[in-house]
Design goal:
By secondary structure, the protein is an alpha+beta fold. The protein is 32% helix and 25% strand. The strands form two sheets. Strands 5-6-7-8-9 form a five-stranded mixed β-sheet, with helices on both faces. A four-stranded antiparallel β-sheet has the order 1-2-3-4, with no helix packed on it. The radius of gyration is 21 Å and the shape is globular.
Length: 183
């Protein structure tokens, strides 16, 4: 059995659009098509998709908390998410003039990482969004460095080897002039 309803929403060009949601009753598969005739299959119902997307956080993510715990256990103290600096770095070490960004591999397009794969649906949208994220990251890092701060980027996938991450972080925070990515 199918149920179809129309819902008004904002499309990516800032214009109002009608989305036809066709739900197969008894399953979690939703066929979505918009007024442009494009359609794709979502394996989650709209309410489940909304709930899943709402769980994604830019602050306090599991990888970020894991990195913060590691750095704190090493005896380093820091400030979180200083908004006065470009890009709002995840950890700021004012006395060392250093910042650390904890980047999720998917959201920040970690090159060569299998966690950074492009979704199969809405490829144009995701390509633009993720490329824009990457360009913004590069701009923010350049702006922070131009202010005299040192920058370290730690990637989500690298947290699988905490010994290696701790060595790089320790070297970064204890050495002037050391800029690097963990990977």
């Amino acid at each position: 059995m199918y149920v179809e309803n129309k819902k008004q929403s904002m499309n990516f060009n800032g214009q109002m659009d009608y989305i036809a949601l066709t739900t197969v009753i008894g399953t979690d598969i939703v066929f979505v098509s918009n007024s442009n005739g494009r359609s794709y299959t979502d394996t989650l119902s709209p309410s489940k998709r909304s709930k899943r997307m709402s769980l994604i956080r830019c602050k306090g993510s599991v990888p970020e908390r894991k990195l913060r715990s590691l750095i704190h256990s090493m005896g380093f103290r820091y400030r979180l998410h200083v908004r006065k600096l470009p890009g709002t770095p995840d950890m700021v070490f004012p006395s060392r003039n250093s910042v650390i960004f904890m980047h999720g591999c998917f959201w920040h397009m970690h090159e060569g990482c299998n966690l950074a794969r492009l979704p199969k649906s809405r490829v144009e949208f995701w390509t633009k969004k993720l490329n824009d994220n990457r360009a913004r990251d590069i701009r923010n890092i350049e702006r922070i460095e131009s202010l005299g701060w040192r920058v370290l980027v730690v990637w989500e996938c690298e947290l699988s080897d905490l010994k290696r991450v701790s060595k790089v972080v320790c070297k970064f925070l204890n050495t002037k002039g050391y800029n690097n990515e963990v990977g």
